[in-house]
Amino acid sequence: YPPFFGDTDADILAKVTTGNFKFDPMDWESVSEDAKDLIRQLLQVNPSDRYTAKQALNHVWIKDKAPNASDVSLRDNFVDNLRSFRSQNKLKKVALHIIATQLNDEHIKTLRETFVALDDNGD
């Protein structure tokens, strides 16, 4: 259920970089306004407007609603949509490249340390 859609990878990337997204009612009608608000905050183009991890964890949806989400049912095509999104390798590579170029040395160092700590077998 990605909020960014387009006919080509370039179309999707243009929407990602400009923050041009929408919640298609077909897929998002059962998603609460609080959840949509959190997603909007996380997708802010301007980093100074975008939620930090701490802000996200303190959002009303995470604090009050997410722990009680056991009664939520997923649409039948949920897994198919995830597989389709996962198969968009070019877009994923471009998006990861954009993210990586925004990281400073301290962020990279922290990520590397976290990865090494989680990598039990050193592969």
Automatic annotation (TrEMBL):
Keywords: ATP-binding, Kinase, Nucleotide-binding, Serine/threonine-protein kinase, Transferase
A matching Pfam family: Pkinase
Record keyword ATP-binding present: yes
Key word Metal-binding present: no
GO function terms (MF aspect): ATP binding; protein serine/threonine kinase activity
Upper classification of the organism: Eukaryota, Sar, Alveolata, Dinophyceae, Gonyaulacales
Domain Protein kinase per the UniProt entry, residue ranges: 1-62
Protein name: Protein kinase domain-containing protein
Organism: Alexandrium andersonii
SUPFAM superfamilies on file: Protein kinase-like (PK-like) (SSF56112)
